[in-house]
Amino acid sequence: MHVSSGLTISNFTEHIWTLPAFPMLTVLSMFYYIYLRRRARTATRGELMNNRRAIESSRPLPINVELVQYAKEVLDFSSHYGSENSMSYTMWNLAGVPNVYPSSGDFTQTAVFRTYGTWWELCPSARLPFTRTPPDFHSQDYVELAFEEPVYPTAVHVLETYHPGSVIKILACSASPYSQNLPADIRWEVLWSEAPTKVNSPQARQFSPCIKQINFPTNLIRLELNSSLLDYYTELDAVVLHGVRERPVLSLTTAMIAMDDDEDEETDDVLDCLNKQFNATALRESTTNGYFDKLPYELIQLILSHLTVPDLCSLSQTCKLLYQHCCDPLQYIHLSLQPYWAKINDTALKYLQPRCVLVQWLNLSWTGNRGTISVSAFSRFLKVCGSELLRLELSCGHFLNETCLEVVAETCRNLQELNLSSCDKLPPPAFNHIAKLYNLKRLILYRTKVEQTAMLSILNFCAALQHLSLGSCVMIEDYDTVASMMGARCKKLRTLDLWRCKNITENGIAALASGCPLLEELDLGWCPTLQSSTGCFAKLARKLPNLQKLFLTANRSVCDSDIEELAANCTNLHQLDILGTRMVSPASLRKLLESCKDLSLLDVSFCSQIDNRVVLELNANFPNVFIKKSFTQ
How far, in Å, CA of 40 to CA of 178, rounded? Predict the structure, then answer.
């Protein structure tokens, strides 16, 4: 029924009483709809949950037959614990039926992300956070999964087998990964989201949040995760998508009570302002700005500096004065667009461009995938806005190609920090351009295809490097040569990530220990060619007294003498991972804990001489140290 805006309540009431009996039911339903809508806007979150569950419990069975699908393949992810050349602990284990569930524990057949807890935020390589990050943006990692058949989702189940609780958001995409042509407008709809919460038990569970119904079929699901509250690495086994082929007919009440839908839509509308020009003509017609005319310019700028980008977009449309403030380039010195990755496209960059001419920190991580940002738009933006850049975050930017890095190198001459983490689609020749960024202090190339020739050139010309990540860079043939160049050129190096470097030997370690005496953090996890019998770990301990974090994960040769050398020489140690060694005894660990007063993290998982009884004893004697001991059920 359509009611014109000019119809009064009294006329409307008289009109409905003249209708036949059956239309009366429709009118009563409309009043009930209005009542529920008002209640949904005023009720607490708990009341809304109860209301929604009560209504859902009384729904009739769907006419459509529900399909149950496991993920067909893993399309994209931000990080994983495993290597690029195996299946152990990799995201690819999320494809297909469960391997482990319902068992609990640490299993190699599951998907595991690279970090957990807050330990990585407390080490020397930690980066400063961006200001203006929305308070409801908590995502640290993501994984995208493709399913065989598009459906209207009715449920999503995540099978978690160890330390559950990291999933904080589930999204669905309108574009099919198996379509030959991508649609012009790609939509991502949030099915469910929640702030990180602590799950006390490490046992397996099936996580089945109550999801929102959407108006398009999907076979592309994205999980976003935050592991900051976890006591250890989370492990995921499989994801199950339930859905129907035909769009279900929603009842009035079901369509009404979607708890956060109105809020999400308002945020989306605000973000759409990035894709449109502000109506400056209308603002010029305003003759007064109220009391804001009496405030100093600097004070208004300070107040506005606490607003997020969508808030600035909204505020800019209120009056001429605030429009000028919201468009002031000084408001965009630090700009993170990662929280809005699903909305950022060529048009958004175009209209942000005049405001970003002074930007110094820019975060475009996770943005631009599936064609939403073109190479030409990115290049135009950087050519205008890149001259002052000091920090550029491009993690998981799969739209990047060699032209993009060439523009970065030619335009961002003052750049000090560059993050290309998990940009695994960048071709190897692209990395040669990084050598032109002589002022680089931080370079993150985790899970990229950088080759040895390019890396040697970068190290030769970027001698100011202080933080370098080469974790899981499988295209480098000889890490000893690379390490020798680091020792010769990078005298200021403070942190180095060589996670899963397959061929570094004691020669490379010797070059690092002698040439980089300022090292405070060194990750040599899963480097199988290092052997304690060569004396390489003892040499590290003697030459690098400033070490605060040392990961020797899965090196079975680490022994008591190595631990004793660390206890004698590296008394500033905060974090130590010796997972998987068979040669370390409880006695040497006691010496370490007595000497290293600042030690806060010690991982002794799968250390055969360190059983649960020893861990309990050490915990009792050294209560300030978090001693990690993984288990397999």
Answer: 38
The H or E element that residue 456 is part of is helix 452-461
pLDDT digits (tens, 9 = 90+) for 382-429: 999 999 999 999 999 999 999 999 999 999 999 999 999 999 999 999
Q: Is 190 helix (H, G, I), strand (E, B) or coil?
A: strand
d(CA 93, CA 85): 13
**Angle, vertex CA 472, rays to CA 466 and CA 478, nearest 5:** 80
Structure token pair of residue 627:
């001693």
pLDDT at position 183:
81
Rounded to whole angstroms, the Cα distance separating 188 from 167 reads 17
Kindly write down the DSSP assignment for every residue of 307-325, as one continuous string: S-HHHHHHHTTT-HHHHHH
| Angstrom distance (rounded) from CA 580 to CA 532 | 14
Torsion, Cα 51 54 58 59, to 10 degrees, reads 50
What pLDDT does 6 receive? 43
Q: What number is the average pLDDT over the span 567-595?
A: 97
DSSP per residue, 422-437: T-TTS-GGGGGGGGG-
* Residue 257 to residue 33: CA distance in whole angstroms: 10
Q: What is the pLDDT of residue 152?
A: 97
How big is the chain by its Cα radius of gyration, in Å? 28
Q: How far apart are CA 363 and CA 380, in angstroms?
A: 16
Q: How far apart are CA 471 and CA 479, in angstroms?
A: 12
Q: How many CB atoms lie within 10 A of CB 516?
A: 24
Cα–Cα distance between 473 and 487 in angstroms, integer? Answer: 19
Q: What is the dihedral of CA 248, 249, 254, 256, to 10 degrees?
A: 120
DSSP 139: -
Decide: 412 and 382 in contact? Cβ < 8 Å. yes
Q: What percentage of residues in the chain have a pLDDT greater than 70? A: 84
- The answer to whether 242 and 193 are in contact (CB under 8 A) is no
3-state secondary structure of 362: strand
* Gap between the Cα atoms of 455 and 458, Å rounded: 5
Q: What is the mean pLDDT of residues 15-29?
A: 41
Which are the contacts of 79, defined by CB distance < 8 A and separation ≥ 6? 113, 114, 115, 141, 421, 422, 446, 447
Runs of H (alpha helix) within 249-374: 252-256, 261-271, 280-284, 297-304, 309-315, 320-326, 346-352
User: Which stretches within 465-505 are classed as H helix?
Assistant: 479-489
What distance separates the 2 farthest-apart alpha carbons in the chain?
96
Contact 446, 79 (CB under 8 A): yes
Of the listed ranges 11-25, 181-195, 348-362, the least confidently predicted one is 11-25
Q: How far apart are CA 467 and CA 469, in angstroms?
A: 7
Rounded CA gap, 148 and 73, in Å? 9
In whole angstroms, give the CA distance from residue 182 to residue 169. Answer: 24
Cα distances from 10 to residues 15, 225, 320, in angstroms, run: 9, 53, 41
User: What pLDDT shows up at residue 319?
Assistant: 87
- Cβ atoms of 370 and 175 within 8 Å: the answer is yes
For residue 235, give both structure tokens.
């492990």
The DSSP H or E segment spanning 147 is: strand 141-162
